[in-house]
Structures are given as structure tokens and as C-alpha cells.
Here is the input.
Amino acid sequence: MAPPSPTSIQNLTKFWRQISVFSPNFTKALLTTSVFALFSLCFFLTFPYSKWRFNCPECDQTLIRDLINGPRLEQKTNISHILFGIGGSAKTWSQRRHYSELWWKPNITRGFVWLDENPARLEPWPKNSPQFKISADTARFNYTCWYGSRSAVRIARILKESFELGLENVRWFVMGDDDTVFFTENLVNVLRKYDYRKMYYIGSNSESVAQDLVHSYTMGYGGAGFAISYPLAAELVRVLDGCIDRYSDFYGSDQKIGGCMSEIGVPLTNELGFHQMDIRGSPYGLLSAHPLAPLVSLHHLDYVEPLFPHTNRVASVKKLINAYKSDPIRTLQQTFCYDLTRNWSISVSWGYTVQLYPFLVRAKDLNTPLQTFLTWTWTEGPFTFNTRKSSLKPCQRPVRFYFDGVKELGNQSTLTWYARQRDEHKRKCDRGNYKAAYLIKGFNVSAGFLDPQLWNEKQAPRRQCCEITGGSDQQDDIVQVRIRGCKQWESVTPP
Ligand SMILES: *[C@@H]1O[C@H](CO)[C@@H](O)[C@H](O)[C@H]1NC(C)=O
Ligand SMILES: *[C@@H]1O[C@H](CO)[C@@H](O)[C@H](O)[C@H]1NC(C)=O
Ligand SMILES: *[C@@H]1O[C@H](CO)[C@@H](O)[C@H](O)[C@H]1NC(C)=O
Ligand SMILES: *[C@@H]1O[C@H](CO)[C@@H](O)[C@H](O)[C@H]1NC(C)=O
Ligand SMILES: *[C@@H]1O[C@H](CO)[C@@H](O)[C@H](O)[C@H]1NC(C)=O
Ligand SMILES: *[C@@H]1O[C@H](CO)[C@@H](O)[C@H](O)[C@H]1NC(C)=O
Here is the structure.
């Protein structure tokens, strides 16, 4: 806590003098006392729950112990407490494994890919893939969805088969598809917010409204991945096989699990970092205006354009992961600010892209994804979030820069750089402001590591702020941006 500034003390003194009948000396004494009291209070509140505060025989000793030692969540959830269950198939694993192998860490991540049959053609089993298990036979179950595939039954049962392995120290079961990319540090971070000893069902639904209408708004979509706490898994396993027959007309495995959740009565806890990615075209707009939540998963990467231009799909996810490794929580976090020396608006999606608009754009617009994509069924909309038209007019488009590299600086911070997209648009805007923008070759962005506690239950979320720290002169072709916490009274407001 910063001490009050001299000017605010002066103002306060003035104010007291005006309203007080006391002499100025008395006022001064009173002021000193109250400032001292305030400091003591701050000290008292920030000082860890030391024993001397609770030397109190009549208090609830359990509560005290918790306060002293932290809550009884013995140890914070880490990656070893998660058991992953990935729905795969023997025939497609050789193509799909590249996505799992991007995030799977042998001997660290726990779990299995569940296959329909023995992967005879994949011998030896790739050592960077999760180990496989073969699902039990599901012929006895009904499946009556005319446009779906029976494999949904098998995949729905992965949760049950994983649970029945009886592995130790599992707090969360996380289900995903064979083309889901998890960002496991962020997943752990999100799960830490929730008490694993209670019943939680955590995930998100589809971006495409039509999908949510056909399937459900209230289930965690399997491709985005969803997490089920141990006690909820225990309840689910008891009723799952029955649900599979009762909801035999449901298309997907995730939907059948959703049906079971209705029976148990546990609603979905929506977390905005799980991405089903039921979109077509370019995910650029979505990923350049990510919500204020850690990136947990990406899915359907084979169905959208590669994340980076001139880069194949898998390599472009690797590129994003490269940034992610340096500052996981900050990945794709959006920050924007103005360069008022030339009325430019600059939006950074950390580790992915910088957009430069050579004019002032309102914050609400910068914060709304450009619609560079269509729905899953190739229509213009609607989506479960707002979008703005991705204008084709050259004098309205942002000039795009893409993440090109990251370096950790010694002082708990990173430098990322973003390079101008090569031969971006055939048609250019020939107004003066755009001509100046086209001369910029790249952005260098510095940022302190983002506090992993940022989104825990104790802190109210707020987007960070940025400022242009260099490159505003005519001859500079690299603009330097610093991302930092916002100051009091700071907002992205045009003058
Ligand atoms: C995770 O927490 C457990 C305690 O439940 C601890 O034994 C283990 O060493 C931790 N693992 C990692 C990777 O931090
Ligand atoms: C994982 O652990 C096993 C047994 O401890 C060991 O044989 C294997 O080499 C390890 N794999 C990797 C990739 O570290
Ligand atoms: C499967 O569906 C058939 C036809 O609707 C029904 O007769 C049968 O009882 C169902 N089986 C189970 C296990 O629910
Ligand atoms: C920026 O825009 C404001 C308001 O539109 C205008 O008054 C000002 O002259 C512009 N400044 C520059 C450097 O273009
Ligand atoms: C921007 O970052 C790159 C990569 O670290 C560095 O080579 C370059 O000198 C930086 N440019 C400026 C103007 O800071
Ligand atoms: C870290 O150091 C660099 C220079 O080495 C400086 O530009 C940057 O502002 C520093 N970052 C923080 C968060 O102190």
C-alpha cells in the first residue's frame, strides 16, 4: 500500500481545517494519529496469520489451524492430480497424434488415449503419445441418432473406464478429443479455483449458436474438453451406463454425459478459456480478442486455417506454444492502447498478433472479435458472442503483425516481437495514415510475467494496460510497447 501523496495530505488538511472547529495543531495531531492507525491496520491485515493473533483458547481451533496453514486443501492442485481421457481410434491415431503430442508430457501428464481396437499398424507405439487403452465392448448399448456414429457410446464411457482404473491421487478427470490441444499450466490454474472435493463440471459450449441449439447449451463440449471433479465422477459412473441408453438418441458422447449431469443435478460451470472452435475459416478474429481468461484448449485445428500465415497447422500451434512456455497465463491476452502522437490504435494479443489501426478505434470495438470466420455450418452467424464485420475495405482493415519470437528478460519479464505479415493484401489503402502504418516492420512488446493468481477467486479480473515506449518517430520502423497493470483512473479513452 502506497503512502498517501503529500498533495493529498495537504488537501486533506485543508479540508479538515475548513470543516473542523479544532485548532490547526490539534487537526495535525489527529491526522498523524489516523495515518498511523491506517498503517497499523494495513500491517495487521497483510502480516501472515501469525500465531500471536490467535492465541485464543475459546476460538475455533480448526479454523485457526486453517488460517495459519492455509485452507485444508493440503496441497494445491498440480498436473499430477489430473487424469486425462482422450477419445481416439486406432485407424486415425497416426494422423491425429500430432496434436496430442504437442501438449502431452510423458511421465508428467497422466492418462490414456482410448482406442476402439488394437493399433496393430502402429507398432511400436509412439513414445511421445499418451499410452493407449482399448475400450470395452459397447455392443449392448443402444445408439439411435441417425446422423451420428456409435463411437459416441464408447467415448462417453471413457470417463467410467478411467475412474474404474482406481488410480491414486486423482482430483480431476479431464476428457478431450484426439484433436484437442490442452494448455495444461492454464488448465491447472483454472482448476485450482475450484474445490476438487465438491462436485464440479467445468467446460464450455459451442461458439456456433446452431450447434448449441441442436446439441445443448448446458453441456461441456468434448472437443473443448471438460473437467469433472472426483466426487462428481463417482456419482456419474454409477448412472452413466443407464444414461447412455436413456439418451440413445443423443448425437455425441459429451451430450450423453450432459444428460447424466441433468440427472445428478450438477450444472456446467462455464470457463471461457476452453475452445470448442466450432468455426470455419480463419480463427484470427477470435484469437486476437480473447476473453479475459487463461487459454485452456483449442480444438478443430484441422478445420480452420493455420493460426499463422505461411505455416502449416501443427507448426503454427507449436509457434503459439513457444510463446506460451514463457508466460502461460498471458498467452492470447489482449491489451490495447493509443499512440496519441499520431492517433494510432494498437491491439496486442500476446504471443499471437498485433493489430495496428492508423486511426482511433473505440475500446469496445477493439475488444470485439473481427469476424474472420463462419459458423460450423458455414453460415455468417449467429455466434454466442458479438463479432464485428471484418471489413474488406483497405482503409478500414488493421495492419497485421504476427508473433515471431520471445525472449525471457532477467527481470521476470518477456520481450515478444511481432513481424509485419508478408505481402498481406494485394489492395492497399493509399491514404497518408495507412502509408505511414505500412512502413512499420514490427512491434517489440515487453511485459512482466502475468501473475498466475490473477484470475483466482480472490481477485476481480481487469484487462492490463499498455503504452508506447518507443518507435513513435518518423524514422523508426519498430514500435515498442510495454504491457503493465493499469494505473488508478487509467482507461483506454480517446482524448
Ligand atoms: C503435486 O502434488 C502432490 C501432492 O498431492 C505432490 O506429492 C507432488 O510432488 C506434486 N507434483 C508436482 C509435479 O508438483
Ligand atoms: C517414463 O518412465 C519410465 C519408467 O519410469 C521410463 O522407462 C521412461 O523412459 C520414461 N519416459 C520418458 C519419456 O521420460
Ligand atoms: C434399445 O432400444 C430398443 C428399441 O427402442 C428397446 O426395445 C430396448 O429396450 C433398448 N435397450 C435398452 C438397453 O435400453
Ligand atoms: C488526433 O485526433 C484528434 C481528434 O480527432 C485531432 O484533434 C488531433 O489533431 C489528431 N492528432 C493527430 C496528431 O493527428
Ligand atoms: C526488437 O527486438 C529484437 C529481437 O530481440 C531486437 O533484435 C531489436 O533490436 C529490437 N528493436 C528495438 C527497436 O528495440
Ligand atoms: C526488464 O528489463 C528491460 C530491460 O532489460 C526493461 O526494458 C523492462 O522495462 C524491465 N521490465 C520490468 C517489468 O521491470
About this structure: The mean pLDDT is 88. The CA atoms of residues 404 and 418 lie 5 Å apart.
